[in-house]
Design a protein that fits this description.
With 265 residues, this protein is an all-alpha fold. It has a single domain (24-264), classed as Up-down Bundle (Four Helix Bundle (Hemerythrin (Met), subunit A)). 70% of the residues lie in helices and 2% in strands. It has helices spanning 24-48, 52-75, 81-106, 114-135, 143-146, 155-162, 164-172, 180-195, 213-229, 231-264, and strands at residues 149-151, 199-201. InterPro entries: CDP-alcohol_PTase-I, CDP-OH_P_trans, CDP-OH_P_trans_C, CDP-OH_PTrfase_TM_dom, CDP_ALCOHOL_P_TRANSF_CS. Keywords: Lipid biosynthesis, Lipid metabolism, Membrane, Phospholipid biosynthesis, Phospholipid metabolism, Transferase, Transmembrane, Transmembrane helix. Belongs to the CDP-alcohol phosphatidyltransferase class-I family.
């Protein structure tokens, strides 16, 4: 079938191609994506019964699995359009709808109308970000990506940043972090950052020098140990560090953009 063919058009080739099933190596990353989807939606189940720690843990686990599936797909050479579509659908549910409902059940429901609008806005902005990403997959002209940057805040990171008030509340027990108006404004800010055109740092753009590599490895081990002992303070600190690094990404991309403009003259 041609790219412009409709459902009623006849096939443009004489020989039918027998559809092939997915190989085992293609099933593995898709199964991880499905597990991430189940984990994210399970977070809603825990939030319904006010088990906030398990709700956050389930969605954080979904983020870990989401980071694994793409890398495993590339490692097994099992990338596919099906996997990309499934991944986007899972991300929309796990990092858009699930965090929005968790935040609404946790605090936003105490803010009539505006609380629900904030939750809706977050879920919609997450879906819009993923739709923009899918629409640009085959686009060659992507200035941010070609320079090693991302456009806006990624969906899993956006979910983590939106949970910052809950992290601080669980860590400190201070109800000021559960103030509905504060949570609504924070949720709206993160939603805007997800669909923004700001250049943000990606893993590929962070390359420590040779003198720093051992220190980075040691820091990674310490962060992992901190997650085991003080998970909520650690997740809150990671969120704050990411926000603090956002201006760095903007300035580094601005320098890349100036170099490109000068080279084009």
């Amino acid at each position: 079938m041609g790219p412009r063919a409709s459902e009623d058009d006849p096939p443009q080739f004489a020989r039918r191609v027998k559809p092939r099933g997915l190989s085992v190596r293609a099933i593995i990353p898709n199964a991880i994506t499905a597990a991430a989807l189940c984990s994210g939606l399970t977070g809603i189940r825990f939030a319904i019964v006010d088990d906030w720690e398990k709700a956050l843990f389930a969605i954080v686990l979904a983020g870990v699995l989401d980071a694994m599936d793409g890398r495993i797909a590339r490692l097994l050479n099992a990338q596919s359009r099906f996997g990309a579509e499934l991944d986007s659908l899972a991300d929309s549910l796990s990092f858009g709808m699930a965090p929005a409902l968790v935040l609404f059940l946790w605090a936003l429901q105490d803010l009539p109308r505006f609380g629900w609008f904030a939750a809706l806005g977050f879920a919609i902005c997450c879906a819009l970000r993923l739709a923009r990403f899918n629409a640009q997959i085959d686009t060659e002209d992507q200035p941010h990506k070609s320079a090693g940057f991302l456009t806006g805040v990624p969906a899993p990171v956006g979910a983590g940043l939106a949970f910052l008030p809950i992290f601080l509340w669980l860590a400190s027990g201070n109800d000021v972090f559960r103030e509905p108006l504060l949570v609504a404004v924070w949720t709206a800010v993160i939603a805007i950052l997800m669909i923004s055109n700001l250049a943000t740092l990606s893993w590929t753009s962070i390359r420590p020098g040779k003198d720093l590599r051992l220190g980075v490895i040691a820091l990674g081990g310490l962060v992992f140990a901190a997650l085991l002992t003080e998970p909520w303070w650690t997740l809150a600190l990671i969120s704050v560090v990411y926000l603090a690094l956002m201006p760095v990404g903007i300035m580094r991309y601005a320098r890349v953009r100036r170099l490109r403009q000068s080279a084009a003259k």
